[in-house]
């Protein structure tokens, strides 16, 4: 049977009226997708950097690493999402900074390899495209890219009715960076290296399944006043992940950085060993910094002991650098001048894993 809009043409030439269905009728609005591309164009163009070769709209995105200043580049790729922090953004409608989280989770990983982030692509999927909301989300992604110095050169918007509930959406990000051949990190981590911690801006983007459980157990709603500071609880918990790229790259280029660890899922306990060679461990003084109020509240409200807190959350430290002890003072000053709050956490020592001393305060 050959189907035309409004009529069926059947065998034998007999015709009958029929209500045809279009792609829009089935829940996919191509016009809305086109409108979104136009709306986000200025934000994407604002992230352009040396090496960017084309704008949005092509079948693929182009980038020239040599034009970005690399002679013999090795590419480094990372992909991530923002976990169930997304649930809070959806439930509160506060979606303007969730894109910053998405970028941060990828580019902070790249810089741990010694790579400079070059470009970023996003994947945004929803059941029904809300152009205004999607624009706010992508503008957040662009803001994160600008903070990291990388270009937003493409992405995908997928409208999939039946896959997502009303108002729901998902985000994933993909970042590519580069470094000169032979400069990959970690390298040269040695006993006696000083551990410099960079303060976090809150919970960042890990541990939110536990966060949501604690909030529910406390009988609180996202629009309630926060028990640990200003703003509503939802606003406080949606504070975006800090982007450490520019200060970290400045420290690497200054010399003396042997390794970096982005403190994400697994906390200090699981992430510090990722830059430690066999036979070496990390000695961390828990009294070296004050636990931020959000983590103190989570620990108290959730009945978490120190071990659980340090293995689930960043506990106030979002990035750690292992640096040559002779360069520690100079690098700490450089990072502080770049706007980071720097904590001397401890040292690299013989052994394995992370050994904690003192108590969280």
Describe this structure in words.
It is a single chain. This protein is an alpha+beta fold and 361 residues long. The chain has helices at 30-45, 85-92, 98-112, 131-148, 208-217, 233-237, 245-254, 267-271, 293-302, 306-312, 328-337, and strands at residues 2-4, 7-9, 15-17, 73-80, 116-126, 151-159, 169-180, 194-199, 257-262, 280-285, 317-323, 342-350, 354-357. It is 32% helix and 24% strand. The strands form three sheets. The protein has a six-stranded mixed sheet. Helix 1 (30-45) runs parallel beside helix 4 (131-148) and helix 3 packs parallel to helix 4. It is globular and about 75 Å long.
**H/I helix tally:** 11
What is the SS-derived class?
A: alpha+beta
Proportion of residues in helical segments:
25-40%
Low-confidence stretches: 1-17
Q: Work out the radius of gyration.
A: 24 Å
Order of strands across the main sheet: 9-11-8-12-10-13
Shape category: globular
What's the number of extended β-strand segments? Answer: 13
**Strand portion, in percent?**
15-25%
Average pLDDT value?
92
Q: How are helices and strands ordered from N to C?
A: EEEHEHHEHEEEHHHEHEHHEHEE
What is the end-to-end distance?
Answer: 75 Å
Tell me the major beta sheet.
6 strands, mixed
Query: Which oligomeric state applies?
Result: single chain
């Amino acid at each position: 049977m050959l189907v035309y809009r409004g009529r069926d043409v059947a065998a034998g030439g007999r015709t009958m009226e029929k209500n045809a269905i279009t792609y829009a009728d089935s829940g996919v609005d191509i016009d809305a997708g086109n409108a979104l591309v136009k709306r986000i164009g200025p934000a994407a163009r604002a992230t352009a950097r040396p090496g960017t070769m084309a704008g949005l709209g092509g079948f693929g995105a182009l980038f020239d690493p040599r034009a970005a200043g690399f002679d013999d580049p090795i590419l480094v790729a990372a992909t991530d999402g923002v976990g169930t922090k997304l649930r809070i953004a959806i439930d509160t409608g506060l979606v303007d900074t969730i894109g910053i989280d998405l970028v941060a989770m990828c580019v902070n990983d790249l810089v741990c390899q010694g790579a400079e982030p070059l470009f970023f692509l996003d994947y945004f999927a929803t059941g029904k495209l809300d152009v205004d909301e999607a624009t706010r989300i992508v503008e957040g992604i662009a803001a994160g890219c600008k903070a990291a110095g990388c270009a937003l050169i493409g992405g995908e918007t997928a409208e999939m009715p039946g896959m997502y509930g009303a108002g729901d959406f998902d985000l994933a990000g993909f970042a590519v960076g580069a470094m000169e051949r032979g400069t990959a990190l970690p390298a040269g981590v040695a006993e006696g290296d000083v551990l410099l911690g960079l303060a976090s801006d809150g919970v960042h983007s890990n541990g939110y399944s536990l966060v949501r459980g604690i909030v529910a157990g406390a009988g609180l709603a996202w629009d309630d006043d926060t028990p640990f500071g200003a703003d509503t609880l939802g606003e406080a918990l949606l504070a975006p992940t800090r982007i450490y790229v520019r200060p970290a790259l400045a420290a690497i280029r200054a010399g003396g950085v042997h390794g970096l660890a982005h403190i994400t899922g697994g906390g200090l306990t699981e992430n510090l060993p990722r830059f430690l060679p066999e036979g070496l461990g990390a000695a961390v003084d828990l009294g070296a910094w004050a636990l931020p109020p959000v983590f103190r509240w989570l620990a108290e409200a959730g009945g978490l002991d120190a071990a659980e807190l340090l293995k689930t959350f960043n506990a106030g430290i979002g990035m750690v650098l292992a640096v040559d002890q002779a360069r520690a003072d100079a690098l700490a000053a450089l990072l502080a001048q770049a706007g980071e709050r720097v904590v001397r956490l401890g040292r690299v020592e013989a052994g394995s894993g992370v050994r904690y001393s003192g108590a969280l305060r």
